[in-house]
Design a protein that fits this description.
By secondary structure, the chain is an alpha/beta fold. It has a single domain, classed as Transcription Regulator spoIIAA. 38% of the residues lie in helices and 29% in strands. It is built from 3 helices and 5 strands. Strand 3, helix 2 and strand 4 form a beta-alpha-beta unit. Helix 1 runs parallel beside helix 2. The two termini are 21 Å apart. The mean pLDDT is 95.
């Protein structure tokens, strides 16, 4: 079963996900990220360490959030399996990182 949780700590936001992320929650993740970005949370950390697979709808939702954050001069901090950490500052960069981490989704 896939799920995600949004945790707010002062100005910071953590989006923690676990399990495969598929189209059934893409709209919910998109909406949650849009709210976080619009509220100008900083930093915005997306923890996908325990996510084995994502579909293109999830990548699209993350890319939209990265693009909106970049327009405000901010980025998203991605945490991926094997200790990988990236700060992405736009949709293209997000898609590139996600394509390497989840080749079947991008």
């Amino acid at each position: 079963m896939s799920h995600f949780t949004v945790i707010r700590l002062g100005e910071a936001a953590l989006v923690y996900a676990e399990g495969p992320l598929d189209a059934t929650i893409a709209a919910s993740i998109h909406d949650a990220l849009a709210d976080i970005v619009d509220e100008r949370a900083t930093p915005i950390v997306i923890d996908l360490v325990r996510v084995p697979t994502v579909n293109d709808g999830i990548v699209t939702a993350l890319a939209a959030a990265a693009s909106r954050a970049a327009q405000q001069g901010r980025g998203l901090e991605l945490r991926l399996a094997a200790g990988q950490r990236f700060t992405v500052t736009g949709a293209a960069q997000l898609r590139q990182v996600m394509g390497r981490a989840y080749p079947t989704a991008a």
